[in-house]
Amino acid sequence: MGNNAVWVRVSRAEPCVICAHPDWCGRTADGTAACCMRVESDTPMGGENAGYLHRLSGSEVLPERKPKPEVERHISFEGEANQCFLSGDNGHIELLARNLGVTADALRLMRCGWGLFGGMGYCWTFPEKDHLGRVIGISLRMTSGSKRMVEGSKRGLVYLDNWDTYLGPTLIVEGASDVAACISMGFSVIGRPSNIGGANMIAKMLDARRPRPVLVIGERDEKPEKRGEFAWCPDDCRGCRHCYPGKVGAIETVNTIARKSHHPRRMAPLRWRFPPSPFKDMREVQNSTEWSKHDLLKHWGYK
After folding, report:
1. 33 and 16 in contact (C-beta within 8 Å)?
2. Residues 6+ apart with CB under 8 A from 98
3. pLDDT of 46 higher than 90
4. Whole-angstrom Cα distance, residue 176 to residue 232?
5. Which of 29-38, 104-113, 227-236 has the lowest mean pLDDT?
6. Are 195 and 221 in contact (CB under 8 A)?
7. Which domains are assigned to the chain?
8. I need a surface site. Which of 67, 106, 284, 302 has the fewest CB within 10 A?
9. Residue 11 binned pLDDT confidence (cut-offs 50, 70, 90)
10. Parallel, antiparallel or unpaired: strands 214-217 and 170-174
11. 74 falls in which pLDDT band (50, 70, 90)?
């Protein structure tokens, strides 16, 4: 770098290669040196607030600037969920219990409610919570059986506050109705919103409680007629998201919980299983009245 070097200011488009900031600093036009006002070197430029000289080889990589952490904005649906719960009289809850084949007490423990929502009419409501127990959304079940979410809701988990006080393993099932079925049979249970949803929050929940075995239940929803529709789901596919979402979702949920947990050994054994054949899910098992909690635990290999 000669005495006649041409200096140019840094900018947002071309920030300082030393401190990565877009102001105050400079560099030579030929890229052989930089004057950084923030990072010291053995060669001060001279004069007060003149900066420090950094000789460049031309291969410098711009320092990575860590983005500011995003502030999580939590919208609470606690009040709305409680209002729906208080509006749900025994007749509404018992009707849903009969429709689902679960106990009304299980639905009450889940704080199932009843409310009027816009053009959808009256619906049963289920609060969905994050791993800290905050209500982050409300799922709706219409009288027709179709399902929606209250506007602005986030998908969360369905579980009781005392879910970890039940004896035996904790079952991880899919959907509120399966949670109600498991509570009706006396299981510790956490409901995820979909076949692969909620695993990160479940891992945090399990980390925060005392060690216990965990069993992810996959839905028996094989769709052989869908095989061969895509190259990645051939005629002899052994199960993928397209032809066997319940199986793949259970496996992915186990893997995600194990990967995200800080204490995966506390969940030993952490594994997945189907409901007993020929049942699709835990609600069908409950409706059959053929299986008790003891029978199911024995079937899944628990003593």
Report:
1. no
2. none
3. no
4. 32
5. 29-38
6. no
7. 1-64 (no CATH), 75-156 (3.90.980.10), 160-303 (3.40.1360.10)
8. 67
9. confident
10. parallel
11. low
Whose tokens are 């004069």? That residue is 47
For residue 41, which amino acid is it?
S
Phi, psi values for residue 142, rounded to 5° = -80, 165
Query: Rounded to an integer, what is the distance from CA 160 to the centroid of its chain?
Result: 18
Tokens representing 61 are 């990589």
Residue with the two structure tokens 């809850």: 93
Q: How far apart are CA 165 and CA 160, in angstroms?
A: 10
Q: For position 294, what pLDDT does the model report?
A: 96
Please check the confidence at residue 65 and state whether its pLDDT lies above 50. Answer: no
Looking at residue 62, its pLDDT comes to: 47
pTM of model > 0.90: no
Distance CA 184, CA 97 (A): 10
In sequence order, which residues have a C-beta less than 8 Å from that of residue 67 and are 6 or more positions away?
A: none
Residue 185 CA to residue 168 CA, distance in Å, equals 12
b/e map 77-110, b = 16+ CB within 10 Å = beebbeebbeebeeebbeebbeebbbbbebbbbb
- d(Cα 255, Cα 220) in Å, to the nearest integer? 19
3 state SS of 44:
strand
